[in-house]
Amino acid sequence: MQVDLKFKIINITAMPRIEVEKTLNVFLLRKKRGYSQFELSFLMGQRDFYVRDAEDLTHTLIYSVPFTNIFREIFDCVIDQIVPDITNSEYTIQISASKNKSDLVVYKAEKLFKDGRIELIATLSAEPKDLLLESPSIITEQSVKDWVLHQISTGYFTGPKNALQILKDCEKELGSTIRPLFLANALKACNGTKGTPKLTNKKDGNGRFVYAL
Question: What is the mean pLDDT of the chain?
């Protein structure tokens, strides 16, 4: 967080406390995993800026109930790490906002405890689509692209696959975590031009984008 930012407390009316805390929990999980806003949107099977809009705490977009199980798969976590215990009255959530030098809104979320303590939870702002956060992955983008092309040639994409399923299969075969951005770029590159095979992507019955030949 930039120390020169001047924050002003704002009232959050777009979402109830449970949704604010759920958004913050998911934010902390994705940061720990090294996923950008775009990468998490991709793994959720949603539009590019879905998570960016959800992390705009004045926006009306919330993570609906079905996403809870998807998050559990993505982050390999228990439900308590996503859905907060709103019966805990030891603290309240305070949200402040400011603007950085790029004129982007920055939100600061804090816990206010009954004894007067203030604990910073997180600072959030919009991220560029191609952002690469620190990641333990050692797999190159070319390796991911080569894997996707090989899977196309072996019939892997004969049936529709969602991004999270593809990521897990790729990580299992390559023996390491991979950056979701690299996988997203590899799938997008298979568009039928310059001699590349063409993968289609459309939403399935669960409202998630899936990829198939």
Answer: 94
Cβ distance 178 to 163 under 8 Å?
Answer: no
Distance CA 34, CA 131 (A): 10
- CA distance linking residue 96 with residue 73, whole number of Å: 31
Sheet arrangement for strand 8-10: 8-10, 91-99, 105-113, 118-125
Supply φ then ψ for residue 28, to 5 degrees: -65, -35
From the list 206, 98, 115, the residue with the least C-alpha distance to 162 is 206
Each residue of 28-65: pLDDT tens digit? 999 999 999 999 999 999 999 999 999 999 999 999 99
Residue 16: Cβ within 10 Å count: 12
> Contact at 8 Å (CB) between 114 and 91?
yes
Do the beta carbons of residue 81 and residue 91 sit within 8 Å?
Answer: no
Residues 6+ apart with CB under 8 A from 107: 55, 56, 57, 95, 96, 97, 123, 124, 125
Residue among 83, 111, 106, 86 nearest 96 (CA): 106
Does pTM top 0.90 for this prediction?
yes
Q: Are 81 and 68 in contact (CB under 8 A)?
A: no
Which 8-state DSSP code applies to residue 99? E
Which alpha helices (H) appear in 37-162, and where do they start and end?
A: 37-44, 50-54, 66-75, 141-153
The end-to-end CA distance of the chain, in Å, is 44
